[in-house]
Amino acid sequence: MTIAPDMPAPGRRFPEQLIYNGYSAPVRIEGDVLDLEVDGTIPPELEGTYYRNSADPRYPPRLGKDIFLNGDGMIHMVRIENGHADLKTRYVRTPKWKAERAARRAMFGAYRNPFTDDPQVEGMDRGTANTSVWWNNGKLYALKEDSRPTRLDPDTLETLGSHDFDGRLTSKTFTAHPKIDPRTGETVAYGYNVDGVASPVIELYFIDPDGTLTRTEQFEAPYPSMVHDFMLSENYIAFTICPMVCDWDRVKAGEPFFHWNGTLPTKVAVIPRAPGGTGSIRWFTSPVTGMETHTFNAWEEGSTLHLEHFFTGTGWLSQFPDVNDPANREQPPFAYRWSFDLASNEDRFESVKLFPQVGEMPMIDHRYATKKTRHFWFGTSNPALGPMLPLGPKGPPFTCIGHWDAQADKLDFFYAGPDSAPEEPVFVPKSADAGQGDGWLLTIVGRRAENRTDLVILDALNLSAGPVATLRFPARVHEGFHGIWVPSAAGEEAALLAAE
Fold first, then answer.
1. Residue 497 confidence (pLDDT)
2. What is the pLDDT of residues 284-297, one digit of tens each?
3. Is 80 exceeded by the pLDDT of residue 500?
4. Cβ of 12: how many Cβ atoms within 10 Å?
C-alpha cells in the first residue's frame, strides 16, 4: 500500500476526518466504573442490565480514511442493582480485532471490502460485531450483519467466540435486527450476502426460545441490496428491498461496498411464516423509490397487513455515494404505515405518514410486537425546544426523544439540553401487568460541551417531565447504534408478557 503525502502513517494517528474528531473521536478505553453518580432516583423496580453496541475504531484506518460503520465493536454495559449502577466497557475480540492487536496496526481495509486488506489476513473473518446485541436463552451476542453472531459473557463481557447454532447455521451472515415474537418466544432472523459476496439470495432463520435453529429457508430478491432490517407480524415476514446496491465488480475495483441507484424500484416481499412460506412469497412495488431505515412493528387486521417503519427518499448518503448523482444529499426519514390487502391480487399498497416529525431509531413496547400498538418512541430534533447540533458522521445528531401516542394523535418530547444528543431509546415495562407503554425509557445522552456521557431514565408516557434519574458517566463512551435491556432475577417479572 502506498501512503499519500496527506495520509497519516498507519498505526500512528487518526486522520483529520469528521468521524475521528471531537465527540465522535475514538475512545478506545476498556474499563469499569463502580457506583456511577446519580441525579434523581433510580426506580426501585428497574433491576437488570442495559447493553449497547458501538463502532469504536481500535487503530487508524489502513487506507487513510474510513466511514463510521467500520469501527470495532465496543460493548457498553450498565448494571443496575439495588439502586446502584456500574459501568463496564469492553471490545468484542473478533478475529479481526485480535489480528490487528497482534500487529499493532490496522490490517483490514475498507468497509466489507476484502480486496483492500493486508495479504497477511487474506480469507480471515473480517466482521466487527459492532451494531447491536441480542439476548437468547440466557446468552448474550454481539451482532453485525456481515458475519455470524459473537457470543459474550453477560457478566464480564469476555468474548466467547463465533456462534453457528451447533453447525446449523451454514451462512456466513446474520442480521443485526432479529425479531422476537412475544407470544411464542421464537426468534426470526435472516442473512443476506450469505456467502460473503454480493448476492440477491436472502436466507431466513427460525430459532426456538432454547436457542435451537430449527429451520432455514431461502428466497431471491430483485437485486443485491443492503437489507438492514425487516418486519414480523403474527403470520407474516416482510422485507423492504431498497436500491442501496452492492456491485461486486465495483467492490473489486476499490469502490464503496454499497452505492445508491435511484433508478431501481423499491420492492416489498411478504412471506408467510408457516414452513415453506418462501414458496408463497408475494412481491409489491413501492410507488416511491426510497429506503427503509429502521422498523417499528408489523401487525394484521383481517386480510390487511400493516408495516410501520421509517422511510427516506434516498439511501444512507452520509456513508455511501449516489452512483448517478454524486451531489445528491441524504433526505430525512419519516414514519409511515404501509397497508397491504392480501386478499387482493393487486401490486399496490396504501401509505400513510404516521406523524409530521423527522425521526429514526424507533422503539415500541415489545410485549405488543406483532400486534397493533399505541405508543411509538424515536430519536428526533425539535427546533422549538433547542437548536440543531453541528453535523456528525451519521448525519444531524438528535436533540430530543419523541413519543407519539397513536390513539390521541399527540406528540411529546424530551429535550436533552444544550449541546446534548440522545441516542436510541430502549423501553422497559414497569411491571408484568403494566399497561401498554407504562414503563421507563433509557437513552444514552452525549454531553458534547463536557465531552462526557450520561444514561438517562425517563417516564415513557411523560417525556416532557424530564429525567427520573440521570446516571452520570465520568467520561465519554463512543456514539453507538442499538441496545437492549435484560432484567435480572430480581427484575425479571417486569419483562414477562402482560396477561392476555
1. 36
2. 999 999 999 999 99
3. no
4. 9
Angle value at C-alpha 358, between 367 and 476, nearest 5 degrees: 75
User: CA torsion 6→7→8→13, rounded to 10°?
Assistant: 100
8 Å CB contact between 461 and 437 = yes
What does the block give as the cell for 362?
A: 424507533
- Could you give the C-alpha distances from 149 to 92, 172, 175, 370, in angstroms and in order? 11, 10, 9, 24
The CA-atom distances, in angstroms, between 288 and each of 68, 314, 318 are 28, 10, 21
Find the angle CA(369)-CA(227)-CA(196) to the nearest 5 degrees: 130
pLDDT at residue 10, rounded to an integer: 52
429 to 30, 486, 487: CA distances (angstroms): 30, 12, 10
Q: Compute φ and ψ for 463, nearest 5 degrees.
A: -65, -40
Q: pLDDT tier at 490 (50, 70, 90 boundaries)?
A: low
Amino acid at 28: R
> Which residues, including other chains, have CB under 8 Å from residue 64's CB and lie 6 or more apart?
3, 4, 6, 7, 8, 15
- For the record, the C-alpha cell of 22 comes out as 471531537
What confidence tens digit (pLDDT) does each residue in 374-387 have? 999 999 999 999 99
Positive/negative CA dihedral, 152, 481, 402, 470: positive
Domains of the chain by start residue, with CATH:
18-492 (2.120.10.30)
> Strand 31-33 and strand 84-91: pairing?
antiparallel
Q: What is the pTM of this model?
A: 0.95
Can you tell me the distance from the alpha carbon of 134 to that of 176, in angstroms, rounded to the nearest whole number?
8
Order of all β-strands in the sheet with 350-353: 291-301, 304-312, 334-341, 350-353
Residue 493 reports pLDDT greater than 80: no
Segment holding 482, helix H or strand E: strand 480-487
- The torsion angle over the Cα atoms of residues 51, 54, 58 and 61, rounded to 10 degrees, is 170
